[in-house]
Model the fold of this input.
Amino acid sequence: MQNKLSFHQSSVSLEIIGLPDYSNNENKDQISIISQWKLTIIDKPLIEGKIEHLVPIMNAFYIYSNLLVKNEIPLYESKLIDIKADNLHIHNIVLKSSKPNVKPLILKIGNSLLSDTINCFDQLNESSKVRIKKTDLTNNTPKKLRFGLNNKVKFFNFIMPPFIAICSIVLFSSSFIYFYSPVEDKEKNELIN
Amino acid sequence: MSRQSIEKLDLLLLILETIDLNGIQSLYALSNRLNLNDVLPNKVTIWKLRNNNPLRKSYVNNNIKVDEFDALIKITVEMSRYLYPYIREILQSKENLEKNSVIWNDFNNRLIDLIKERFNLDSMRVKKLLNQTENDEMIIKSLLTLSLCISNKGYQKLKNFLFDF
Done:
């Protein structure tokens, strides 16, 4: 008997069907082995598939929404899914089938349905009852952020060694202030003369 | 905190206030519920922090602290969660103006009134916000930003959007 979990947000619902991983001593209501998923958007054709399709589709939505909000060109293209903005309010989604001779499914959704869909995906990501392999799901943190953090670390590694070197020279040379007294030296010179 | 991130956050709060007529009171009530009383002890503090937005008439550079900025982000996310059905409705109304133009027009007019009331009208950026042809995009993107930050990880998401990472 398979488990079924649903996530709802206004006009969109996401259904996950699968089994727990008993080899990991999981509860019987857990889903770790996803066999099927269904994304229902009101007034639109049903979208369903296997786990290997769900993760790329989720990533596509996340990346596209990031581009949209950050004033970048809202366009996402992959082997499985293309999303582009028709205008400020309508988003064009093309889902390509992996089977030959199957026409791609084209959907047009507005901003309200786009946010409902992403909120459903968020619920799935945050659910403790469904485990999606983290390796499959790329980090939602935008690439730019990851790049930025890497750059900061590189910059830190670059600047720290010379900074420590300069500090140690300053500390080392400051200790000589106590050994050398110009006044005493002057007096000694006068005595010699 | 960068000037842009404070501008963006204050604008998002202004949009939430446009939807919730009793917005200032709601923001304060949420800060209590989220146990942010240490950082945001009263409505005046929230107002003072928001005055760090250079677009405001009453702009004062108080060097907003990280925990104060974080607290404002948290109440923005929480309020978006409560107002999600309305945010969604406004977005939807713009998608089909022939059917639902009343909702969008009401929202837009009230937002413009609030901008005129609180922002420095001599600023070119504020003039852009008031420009009917240019402000649609800004409003839709702001509403979309709020609608995408209602999950448990909404705080981190909104922070990323604000700092434009």
